[in-house]
Amino acid sequence: MSLRVINPEEIGAPKGFSHGILAPASGRILFVAGQNASRDESGVEPAIRTDFVRQFAIALDRILAVVREAGGGPQDIGRMTIYTTDLPAYLSGRAAVGVVYREAMGSHFPAMALVEVTQLVDGGAIVEIEATAVIPEGSGEEAG
Q1: Segment 32-87, tens digit of pLDDT
Q2: Over the Cα atoms of the chain, what is R_g?
């Protein structure tokens, strides 16, 4: 199974994301809750509370852990939304974020949005990621 990238020429070429992703009818949809770098109810450890890149890496790893548990992989993620309380930190760290992203996701770029928000629920979190994946039929049937 593979997701089909939809990038209409008339709206311009995207960079680092896809305008649309079309899932095949044979997949199962997995909705992944927002993940951040918080390890427990105490929030994000103080050492990384201002480190956008490190928090992004942990949040993305957590997203991928859920997808893998369901029987999928990075290539099965069709949509990702990144929330941040610090847009300047994202903008200044884009190159490093790109490295982290490619290490985890390879050259797969789902439909994505990045949204600046005033606050996230977990203490010290400056980035949170949620995703939707389409898991190939027959993969991860035992997950639950």
Answers
A1: 999 999 987 888 999 999 999 999 999 999 999 999 999 999 999 999 999 999 99
A2: 15
Please report the beta strands in 1-144, taking only residues with DSSP state E, as ranges in sequence order.
4-6, 20-22, 27-35, 77-84, 111-116, 127-136
How far apart are the C-alpha atoms of 72 and 113, rounded to whole Å? 22
The domain defined by 4-133 folds into 60s Ribosomal Protein L30; Chain: A; (3.30.1330)
| pLDDT at position 144 | 46
Closest CA to 80 of 53, 54, 52, 56: 56
Domain edges within the chain: 4-133
Structure tokens, 96: 């490093």
- The pLDDT of residue 15 is above 90: no
- CB count in 10 Å sphere of residue 81: 16
What is the pTM (predicted TM-score) of this model?
Answer: 0.89
CA angle in degrees (0–180, nearest 5) for 96-78-83: 50
Amino acid at 42: S
Q: Are 34 and 140 in contact (CB under 8 A)?
A: no
